[in-house]
């Protein structure tokens, strides 16, 4: 009961508007006080708090987070987003609902650069939402397409949420990156299918202008540079040349060289503002991780994971039923809680239970990440939905209603990868991670 109370306390504080790191820290401290009151455990020294905070972030793989964020900032400041969008438009051509389809394709490319859904919404949405509205799409449709496609970012490598999961559970980040590649493509294709089906009744605008061969050649040449980053990241990891953290550092160097010396869209004076934004985003994530370590320590001391595992085993012996229960739980929590924070809190508890049911940790991690990022586009607390509605000056209620068909497509992909692990494990298995 104490463990359940602590978990409920975390979510209650967050829903009341308490900052996530403060909610985790307060809950962890309350748990330590309880542990100290139990003489059978011999008491817990208060030095546990700073030790847990330090051990929570003293991890080499976590260095990948600031590197990926900084690389994304450089690419954004270097106007790389414009080149990716133009390349996506070239690929889509004059097919029905071309601008909406290009929005999704651009998000798939952009996901291979930043690994952040919020960054995708801000960058892609800031350009394409006004363009879609000007071309004749409704505000609700522009919001729905942009917010839903932004969720591809944390699935297609690199992914900040997968880095966090790998650190929390002790799973190879490289294997997680590979495991997310096919599901990311499946989500993108699913969203494009929804657009195509809606076009039959809503008759979205269709582009009629045709690019010349010279324009296509120039667009392709411009896109080579940003598309080189995911090749460096994934190729370096697969080739055994570097770790995910080192790949992140290489991505920073690559993006800086391209933006400053090839495209010449970033100057030296831009570096300090970019570093400042990187520090703000990184510190927020690391503060949550460090505070969550205190909670993890308390829950482990209370043997909560073992108790939950025994409870799940008493309810069902089927891994399929277990995964259904987990999906329903995380889908609901993802609607109310930040995805990264949910991974930090839930992964150390649920991953060991999944292992008891014979579920591969990489498979479970990708399912968990996809599950949580769906919440980024759903009310009441969908960050991407709110960002897109703010850009479009659209009421959240209307945007939330319009996004439902796209969320349904994402849920279908979620259950496909849940019950057909091959979609997740094929690439990691091919490269010897599984």
TrEMBL record:
Keywords: Cell inner membrane, Cell membrane, Membrane, Transmembrane, Transmembrane helix. The keyword DNA damage does not apply. It is a multi-pass membrane protein. Residues 7-421 form the TRAP C4-dicarboxylate transport system permease DctM subunit domain. It is found in: Cell inner membrane. This is TRAP transporter large permease. NCBIfam families: dctM (TIGR00786). Its main location: membrane. The chain crosses the membrane at residues 7-33, 53-72, 141-167, 173-198, 219-241, 247-266, 278-299, 311-333, 340-359, 365-391, 403-424.
């Amino acid at each position: 009961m104490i463990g359940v109370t602590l978990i409920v306390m975390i979510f209650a504080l967050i829903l009341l508007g308490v900052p996530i790191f403060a909610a985790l820290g307060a809950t962890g401290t309350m748990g330590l006080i309880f542990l100290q009151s139990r003489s059978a455990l011999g008491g817990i020294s208060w030095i546990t708090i700073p030790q847990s905070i330090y051990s929570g972030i003293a991890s080499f793989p976590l260095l990948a987070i600031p590197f990926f964020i900084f690389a994304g900032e450089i690419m954004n400041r270097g106007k790389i987003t414009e080149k990716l969008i133009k390349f996506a438009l070239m690929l889509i051509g004059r097919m029905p609902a071309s601008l909406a389809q290009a929005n999704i394709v651009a998000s798939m490319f952009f996901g291979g650069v930043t690994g952040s859904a919020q960054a995708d919404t801000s960058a892609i949405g800031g350009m394409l939402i006004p363009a879609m509205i000007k071309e004749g799409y409704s505000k609700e449709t522009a919001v729905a397409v942009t917010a839903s496609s932004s969720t591809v970012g944390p699935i297609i490598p690199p992914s900040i949420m997968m880095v966090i999961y790998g650190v929390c559970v002790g799973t190879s980040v490289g294997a997680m990156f590979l495991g997310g590649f096919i599901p990311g493509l499946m989500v993108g294709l699913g969203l494009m299918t929804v657009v195509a089906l809606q076009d039959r009744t809503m008759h979205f605008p269709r582009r009629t202008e045709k690019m010349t061969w010279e324009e296509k050649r120039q667009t392709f040449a411009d896109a080579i540079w940003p598309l080189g980053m995911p090749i460096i990241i994934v190729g370096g990891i697969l080739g055994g040349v570097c770790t995910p953290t080192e790949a992140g550092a290489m991505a920073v160097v690559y993006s800086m060289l391209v933006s400053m010396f090839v495209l010449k869209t970033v100057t030296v004076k831009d570096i300090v503002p970019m570093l400042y934004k990187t520090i703000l985003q990184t510190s927020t994530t690391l503060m949550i991780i460090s505070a969550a370590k205190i909670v993890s320590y308390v829950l482990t001391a209370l043997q909560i994971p073992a108790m939950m595992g025994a409870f799940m085993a008493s309810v069902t012996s089927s891994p399929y039923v277990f995964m259904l229960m987990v999906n329903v739980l995380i889908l609901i929590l993802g609607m109310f809680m930040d995805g990264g924070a949910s991974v930090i809190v839930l992964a150390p508890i649920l991953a060991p239970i999944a292992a008891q049911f014979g579920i591969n940790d990489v498979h479970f991690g990708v399912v968990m990440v996809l599950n949580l990022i769906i919440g980024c586009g759903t009310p009441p607390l969908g960050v991407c939905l709110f960002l897109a509605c703010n850009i479009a000056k659209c009421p959240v209620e209307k945007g939330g209603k319009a996004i439902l068909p796209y969320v349904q497509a994402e849920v279908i992909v979620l259950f496909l990868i849940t019950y057909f692990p091959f979609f997740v494990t094929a690439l990691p298995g091919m490269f010897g991670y599984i």
